Every structure is written in C-alpha cells, then in structure tokens.
Amino acid sequence: MWNTSRFMLRCLKGLDAVLVTLVFSVCFYIFSFNTIQQANRYFVFCGMIIVFFLLYCIFGKIYDAFTVSLFRISELVYSQVLAYLLTDTILYICICLMQNKLISLYFPFLMCVFQFPVVILWCKYAHKWYFKSYPPKKSIVVYDMREGLEKLIGKYELGHKFNVDKVVTSEECLQQLDMLQNYETVFFSGVHSHERNVILKYCIMNRIVSYVIPRIGDVIMRSAKPVHMLHLPVMRVTYYNPSPFYLFIKRVFDILVAFCALLVLSPVFVITAIAIKVSDGGPVFYKQERMTKNGKKFMIHKFRSMRVDAEKDGVARLSSGENDDRITSVGRFIRKVRIDELPQLIDILAGNLSIVGPRPEREEIALQYEKEMPEFRLRLQAKAGLTGYAQVYGKYNSTPYDKLQMDLLYLANPSFVEDLRICFATVKILFMSESTDGVSTESTTALMK
Question: Which residues contact 218 (CB under 8 A, 6 or more apart)?
C-alpha cells in the first residue's frame, strides 16, 4: 500500500504539470501555430511544449508547488500560480522574439485564466487524496533548550500530517528509550548533540523517521569536506572560502542585475521620490550604517519610510511592523511592496552589497545579539546581501539564533546555482505579509541556543 500510494503521488504531481502544459499547448496552437514557418512548424511546437513543461517543473520545485504534504491548499495554489506566471512570461517573450513581433496579449491572458482553475482543482483534489491515503503519523517531540515545537506544528496546520501525542525532555527519553517504539516520527528540538545522537541511533535502528532542528555546530559541519589522511575518516572544516571563479561570477551577476534593474525601475524611483517628498517635505533617502563582510561598515541607502525624527533619541530599534507609529503613510505602502529596498541596488553597484548574502545588520543591534550569542558574528564571513537564505525562508521577526542558522546554511556550500534559486524564491515572499512582520522587544532577546 505504501509503495502504491507513493507511486500514485508522483503520478499526481506529474498530472498537474501535464494539465498546466496542456493549457499552454492549446493557447499556443490557437494563437501562434499558423504563424510558424511550415517547414519547422511541428518541431517548434513540440519544442515549446517541452520547454514549458520543464520550466514549470523547475519553478514548481523552487516554490514547493508540489509539496502537498506540508503546505495548505492556499499556499500550494499561490506557489503554482507563481510558477506558471513566470513560465508563461518566459515562453511569451521567447515566442515574440522568435517571430520578431509582439504577439497578441490575449495569448498570455487566456493562458493564465484557464490555468488558474486547473491549479485550484488539482490542489484541492491532491490535498484531499494525500491525507486520505496518508493518515497523521503518531509523533513525539523530544526537546532540551527549545520548547514549544508542538505549538508551531499546530500553528502551521501540520496537525493533519503529524499527530503529536507526547512531549518529553531528552533526559526523560534517554531513561526510557523503548517509549519511542510506539511512534512513527520523532522531532528533536534544541537537543544537545551527545543526547541526540544516542536517541537518533535508536530511531535509525528501529526505522523511526526523525526530524532534527539543528544547532549551530551541526550547521557549521555542513561545510566540512572529507580529507584522506591518517587512514581515518577526517572532516576538514574551515572559514568561509569560496572559489575565486564563484566570486567573479557572483560579482558580474550583481553588476548586471543591479544595472538592468535600475534602468527598468527608474520610473518607480521617480514616482516614489515625489511621493515621499510631497508627503512630509523630508529627505527622500534614508542612510544608515550597516556591517558587511569581516565587519566592514558602509552606508546603506533606502527610501525613507519613517518620520525624520524616528530615532531622535539615538537609540537603535528594529521596526515593530504595521503598528510602528514611526512609519509614515507612504512608508507603510512602500514597505509592503518592498519599494523601500530599491536604492540598495546602488549599494550593490558600489560593491558594498551583493544580490544574495546575509542580511546587513546595524552594529548596535548585532552587538546586542553577540552578548548572548557570540556565534552571531559568523554571519560576517561573506558580503551582506539584498536578499538571502534567512530573508527568504525565515521571517523578519525570526529569532537571531534562527537567522544565524539559516545564514550559515547558505555559507556552508556556496554556489551560483543556489544564488539563482534564492533570487527566484525571493519573488515568492514579495507578496507574503508574514515575511515583513515586525519584531517585538522580547523577540530581540529571546535567543535560543
């Protein structure tokens, strides 16, 4: 039954890609098929269908559009719509270039219209089928210094996948390992490596699936490289040291993307600048000292979204979100749609920022974190970025400890492919309000180790 259901799930995912591609094929045939040279007509038609299918699958993978088991129906629909919109756009541009003319906009419009109900129906059916075929797994949470994981499972509506029946400390679990035999899944939350490894070995031997929330040391070990020496299995761990070729490609990419974005978005710059100036007569730009690679300081540029006297007392504070009374009416809007971040493209051209990298923090804020968590400075191994792993997969109010872990995950194995994946994934969070949630005073000190 398990193997059959797994095979059915793969077929179901493939069916989604086929149906969305089918809508593209029909629209392409109606609007463009007869305009292709007759000698190459069927070759081009088949080629476009294959390219669409592959691109949709790639974007679907990037945006977790097929992960029925972990996401709500609304999240699946949002991810798939984003995947097919990007694919439709790329294919539309390719067809226009191929035919040397602008194709009727009815073509992409009808594609989007007909693909939408296909996506909704698939997400609803797939979600219903999956949780009928896979009942919730009886689960146990083992924790040490990080409590409340079972609440997060409920908050993100994963109760239909994991039925958390019990929550115990690592000490209690070690005293009675046999209790785990009654469970299908074990969650490790903030458990020290020694205790965790003992329990983890037991889980593996008894074929119990485990989910581990890593600690800083675990994340650092992801960058380890095997070395053949002493006739022993040795792992070599070093400071962040990417290849010169990767750094060169990354810099070229930064310059090209920042320059093109500035050209395309120049009208947005002008309109935003006028709106800010008219609203209260204050300066258009806001400059602030931030830290980048090796603690180097630079002045970051943003469109001003707060009152001119927002920090008149000289105390550095993180935004508390929509309830922050320092944010202006114009500022509230440009923050919501991320326009306030656009002037950082200038900082990228200047070489102070990269497109992808750890978030540039203020020195005052970073020092607060480092008092409780000295490892926070490890984020400064690479140049700070406009977007990054923590910005995409975390939230603005994620704890500093979690942000550090996500940044270290990015630094562990640097690659241009990963940078591209993060760039595309950034598009997904632009319209997600939770990624701009504010930070409460308590959260800045709630550093979980």
Answer: 193, 212
Distances (CA, A) of 87 to 54, 81, 93: 9, 10, 10
Cα dist. 331→279, 305, 328, 386 in Å?
10, 4, 5, 19
Which are the contacts of 266, defined by CB distance < 8 A and separation ≥ 6?
none
Strand pairing class (232-236; 225-229): antiparallel
SS3 track for 87-136: HHHHHHHHHHHHHCCCCCCHHHHHHHHHHHHHHHHHHHHHHHHHHHHCCC
3-state secondary structure of 301: strand
For the chain, helix, strand, coil in percent to 5 are 60, 15, 25
Q: State the pTM of this model.
A: 0.81
Residues β-bridged to residue 229: 232
Nearest to residue 55, comparing CAs of 20, 97, 26? 20
Q: Do the beta carbons of residue 397 and residue 437 sit within 8 Å?
A: yes
Q: How far apart are CA 444 and CA 365, in angstroms?
A: 9
Going by C-alpha positions, the residue among 391, 373, 389 that lies closest to residue 444 is 373
CB-side exposure of 422: number of CA atoms within 13 Å? Answer: 26
- State pLDDT tens for residues 384-420: 999 999 888 887 657 888 889 999 999 998 899 999 9
The tens digit of pLDDT for each residue in 201-259 reads 999 999 999 999 888 888 888 888 888 888 888 989 888 889 999 999 999 999 999 99
* Max Cα-Cα span within the chain: 76
53 phi-psi bin (left φ>0, alpha ψ -120 to 50, beta other): alpha
CA distance 325 to 339: 19
Q: Which 3 state secondary structure label does DSSP give 284?
A: coil
Residue 183 region, left (φ>0) first, then alpha (ψ -120 to 50), else beta? Answer: beta
Residue 344 near residue 302, CB atoms below 8 Å: yes
Percent of residues, the chain, with pLDDT higher than 70: 90
HSE of 320 in the Cβ direction (CA atoms, 13 Å)?
Answer: 10
